[in-house]
Specification:
By secondary structure, the chain is α/β, with parallel strands linked by helices. 43% of the residues lie in helices and 11% in strands. Strands 1, 2, 3, 4, 7, 8, 9, 10 and 11 form a nine-stranded mixed β-sheet that branches. A two-stranded antiparallel sheet has the order 5-6.
Length: 480
């Protein structure tokens, strides 16, 4: 009996020790071994490998599914995670618009029949969808910077118009908004209950899909918000460069990058064969089909589970789709290697990054304006920012992608502020160029704000070579 009691006691102690060890590891109090570069082999392959079923080799269908970002019930998210003695000061959110109808059509084929009205009991479903439509219908007198005031506040066409946001796109951003509400408002109390208009900064391009995506996220974040407190600013440039858009060298990088894309396409005989087969099916010259950017329309068929188009000459099929999608993935891989896009990205992303650190610095001074900033944008907005930050392994921005900058204050040392960068819910701070070596030099669990400020003001231009250490000089250097 005594032996049995001792055995049970030892078993209980072993279980307790195992629980304590796991708990300490969870709260990062015991270091967990990592490779020397600080990244696992999987994260080196691609930031945010989504489900655990990620295939061992690149699969175009799998990548396309991630791009569609079909709304699901649960989503992993690391937003708002910080040691208990850190206080959230401000949040800056960059989003790509949600799922949309194609911008291009495959010549001589029937357009995919997608309904862009919002129906509460139709999939994809969201419990706030009906309330969102009702609230948007009351916003006709709201204040928007011109020309935004002429745009519809939600999609409402039985057959989608070109580029129009779909119900899927609305639900994607209602989910984003609700997720951010649960973290930033309910948990961290970023905004007071009686928040004021000057505590929000809202900006969007002049497309209905970006305005509507921003409103959907905002409604999820602040349900039944007071329209009198909402003001969306219009941004004419997809780069959100405001008054700093003139940059000749950036345009030269873009021209060289486009030339690289063209040469890679010429080398891909399978791609040319596929375009030729598709051109015969729709009875147009191959050049015309290629110019129509068929992947844009094919992705709509794929994401909405609509059959690819057919003619009397045959059908566009999944094999055609796989070849074109595979080429896109190969193009992204070569783009990272050649680094021409990096040059474009540094100069393209600098103005918006500079605006962001300006807001952060004002927040560190105790200013209470613009605590939550939302930029509703495009893939061509987020992609350069990701590249400029050094997140070269990040996937191309999916529908409703979100990139978030969090600013934190150390309550134990109130003069010290830190930043976190999150992409689609994954903390990628220590993958960035400005903070990838921070953990080697400092035991602090977050990245100092001064690292990001120094990077944007000076260090990011090192990637361009030459002697330019500021935006103007880098944009106008002649030796390029």
């Amino acid at each position: 009996m005594l032996f049995r009691n001792r055995f049970l006691l030892l078993l209980a102690l072993a279980a307790l020790l195992a629980f304590v060890s796991l708990s300490l590891q969870f709260f990062h109090l015991i270091p967990v071994s990592t490779p020397k570069n600080g990244m696992s082999s999987k994260s080196r392959k691609r930031i945010m490998p989504d489900p655990v079923t990620e295939p061992p080799v690149t699969d175009p269908v799998y990548e396309a599914l991630l791009y569609c970002n079909i709304p699901s019930v649960a989503e992993r998210s690391m937003e708002g995670h910080a040691p208990h003695h850190f206080k959230l000061v401000s949040v800056h959110v960059f989003i790509r618009h949600g799922d949309r109808y194609p911008l291009y059509v495959i010549p001589k084929t029937k357009r995919p029949e997608i309904d862009c009205t919002l129906v509460a009991n139709r999939k994809p479903y969201h419990p706030k969808l009906e309330a969102f439509v009702s609230h948007m219908s009351k916003g006709s007198g709201a204040s928007f910077e011109s020309p935004l005031n002429s745009l519809p506040l939600y999609p409402n066409h039985p057959l989608c118009e070109m580029g129009e946001l779909t119900q899927t796109g609305v639900v994607q951003h209602l989910q984003n908004g609700q997720l951010l509400r649960d973290i930033y408002l309910k948990k961290h109390k970023l905004l007071p209950n009686d928040w004021s208009a000057d505590q929000l900064y809202l900006e969007t391009t002049g497309k209905s899909r970006t305005l509507q995506s921003g409103l959907a996220l905002l409604y999820g974040f602040l349900p039944d918000f007071d329209w009198k407190k909402i003001y969306f600013r219009h941004q004419p440039s997809a780069l959100f460069c405001s008054g700093s858009c003139y940059c000749p060298v950036r345009n030269q990088y873009l021209e060289k990058e486009q030339r690289r894309q063209y040469l890679l396409r010429l080398k891909n005989s399978q791609l040319e064969k596929t375009y030729g087969e598709m051109a015969k099916i729709v009875d147009v010259p191959t050049k015309q089909l290629r110019a129509a950017n068929p992947i844009d329309s094919m992705l709509c068929h794929f994401c909405h589970n609509v059959s690819f188009p057919c003619t009397r000459n045959g059908c566009v099929d999944m094999e055609h789709f796989k070849v074109i999608k595979t080429h896109q993935i190969e193009d992204e891989r070569e783009r990272r290697e050649k680094k021409l896009y990096l040059g474009y990205s540094v100069l393209g992303a600098h103005p918006i990054l500079n605006q962001t650190i300006g807001r952060m610095q004002r927040a560190t001074e105790g200013r209470k304006e613009e605590l939550f900033a939302l930029y509703s944008a495009h893939d061509v907005t987020l992609s350069p920012v990701l590249s400029a930050l050094g997140l070269s392994e990040a996937r191309f921005p999916r529908f409703a992608a979100r990139l978030i900058f969090e600013l934190w204050q150390d309550r134990e040392k109130p003069s010290e502020h830190s930043v976190r960068i999150l992409y689609n819910g994954v903390d990628v701070t220590f993958h960035t160029s400005f903070c990838q070596d921070h953990h080697k030099r400092s035991p602090k669990p977050m990245c100092p704000l001064e690292n990001l400020v120094r990077f944007v003001k000076r260090d990011m231009f090192v990637a361009l070579g030459g002697s330019g250490t500021n935006y103007y000089d880098a944009c106008h250097r002649e030796e390029f």
